[in-house]
Every structure is written in structure tokens, then in C-alpha cells.
């Protein structure tokens, strides 16, 4: 059999999809990954075939920097980073406005390119990132069966009266103005309508007899797989697509460099793993606050600095690198300090590690709210939290370890890759 994986050119998207694809690889199947050039090395590292397929203007091979983006995309990224300093609503407003231009990049051209890939590869199964809208547009227009993987918080696929881009929940530490929230909701609905019109126009060009969408953000594949633990899902969100399943997580196996292995083996003192992911590590001010707070504790620290500049000095006993093997370190960490991105949340929970969440954007607010609601950690507002606040939250986070460990035991019983393979290969949608 042949599996085709379609992913945007972003490491944070590709890594969980590639991890799911390892189940096909173990079964002896051919795996082809269609994505952009920036992540080609990651594809080859997994031992998969790479088919070049850019799906957007930007890219991220692991740590994103504005100066490495194309003209226009660099300014958009700087604008996003600036918005995070102004708070939750302002960041979500910026992202809603940007959505007018960046989710369906050259939709007809990219859709035709996707269909050419399908024709060339002739896959038996297709799994596609839910946020690869132009790819899903192509598969919808071509009537090509596919598995739709929601890599972010489940609210990335709206249900009921939800509107894409408006958070379904946020932690108690955030107290947004009601009027600002109402304005954000109106903006998100306007952008939804504009996006749907753009989707329908491209769909009509590709497949003139296809039925138009009422809300393109709610469109999905034949089978929807959520890269998210069912234990954290809000039961009020009951109108999920049929069929669907929760994978729990897609935790990859990482090679641990010798220096990291030596650090892990040098001391059995509990440690905190700190990372704001490939984007938000630029918030060196918040990382500095976290560093100040953790210096007051008895924890060692493994700190992934990403693109952060000008951080304060740290103790010699800490492990500090721009990039660290996250899943390997989480497997031994006592706690994690995170931006609440979905990869970090699911990987930490699979390891049974409680989290101190400092969310900045998109579905991170809903992810942090779930951490708080289900007692697997603590959530703070990164723009308001002081070092004293963070130090106090560290203690409460460590107290959340039993709840996180219980969920971790459940997730480790059935790896997400094995579940995805079973569901996708037995799904009645059949051969594309």
C-alpha cells in the first residue's frame, strides 16, 4: 500500500503527521509526504519520500524567524509577535484579519497541484492536515476520499454555533472586556463569510457542479481524527463529525544527543522542561520571567530558547539549547512550562507531565483552559504574570502530577499512530 501525507511546510504540523505515518512504515508500506522545501529534511529523516508541494507563503523548519520569511510574510510575522504583547483579544483580532489572506493561498493553482500529486503517487490512503485548506479543497473538488487530521485543539473544527477564530474557552487568569469580545466575534464571523465565499469561488472553478459550502471552516474529510486526548475534550462540544476519533497524541521517538543524555544522567534531581515552541520563543520577556521564577526553586531546568535573545544568566546546572528533543525530555521531566500549543500539551500528557501554561494565541487559550479545568496544571496570563506568580504556580503545577500521570497511563496504552493506522485502513471510504 501507499500512504500520501499532505502537510503545510511547518515542522509543528509535519512532525505529528509524520509520526502517525510511521505506523504505515512499520507495516512495510510506502509513505510519500507532500510538503514544502523547508521541511524536506524532516521528511527524509523519517525515511519517507518527499514530494515538493508548497501550500502557503511562509515556512518553518523548526524555529521560525521573521527575517527568514518571504517579503510580506516577514512583516506579518512581526505584526503577530507585536500583537501578542497587547493581549488575548488583540492577538486574536490580528490573526482574524490575517486570515483574510493566508489560509487559501492561490487556491485554484494549489488545488490543481494537489490533484496532480494524487494522480502521480496513486495512494491507497491519504491523511491531510485539517489546516491545509487548499489541499482539502482539492480533495473535496475531486471527490477524493481522505482522512482529515485536526492537529490543534478540537475547536479548530467548529461545531454548533461556534465561529472559527473565536476561543471556545480561556483560562480564569484572562479577563477580556465584554465589548472587545463581542467585536472580535463579529470580526470572526465576517472573516468566516469572506473565507467561505473564496472557498466556494475556487470550488466552482474546480468542480462547477459541486454544492457550495455554508461555512468553509466546518468542512472536513471522510474521517476526522483529533490529535487530542478524549479525557480533555469538553463534552458540551457534542456535535462532532461522524465518523471521528480521538488519537490522544502523536508522540515521535527522538534521538537524544550525547550532551543531553549526559545532562540527564548526571543528576536525578527533578527538572522542569521549558519551551514556548517554534514561534512564541521570541517572547524573551516572558521566558526571562520564567527563568527568574525557576531560579527560586529546587528544580533543575531544561530550557529550549528557540529564537529568544537577551535572556538572563542561568545556573550552570541548567541545560540550555536553542532546540531540545522535547518528547525525550518530557519523558523524564517533573513538569513543563509551555505556551499550550497542541503538540506540547499532548506530548506532555502522554508522558504524564503536569503543565504551567502561558498561552499567547489561537487555540492555545482553549488548550490552557482544558489544562486548568481538568486539573493537569495551571494557566497564567503571560503578559501579566510576575516571577512571584510563576514561582507560586510552579508549586501548584507539581501538585497536579497525579492527574497528569493518570491520563498519561491511558494515552500510552494505545499510541496515536497505531490507532490512526487501524481506523484509516479499515475506513469504508476505500481507495482514492
Automatic annotation (TrEMBL):
GO terms for molecular function: UDP-glycosyltransferase activity. Transmembrane segments: none annotated. The keyword Iron-sulfur does not apply. Keywords: Transferase. It comes from the Bacteria. Coiled coil: none annotated. InterPro entries: Glycosyltransferase_28, UDP_glucos_trans. This is MGT family glycosyltransferase. It comes from Paractinoplanes abujensis. The lineage of its organism: Bacteria, Bacillati, Actinomycetota, Actinomycetes, Micromonosporales.
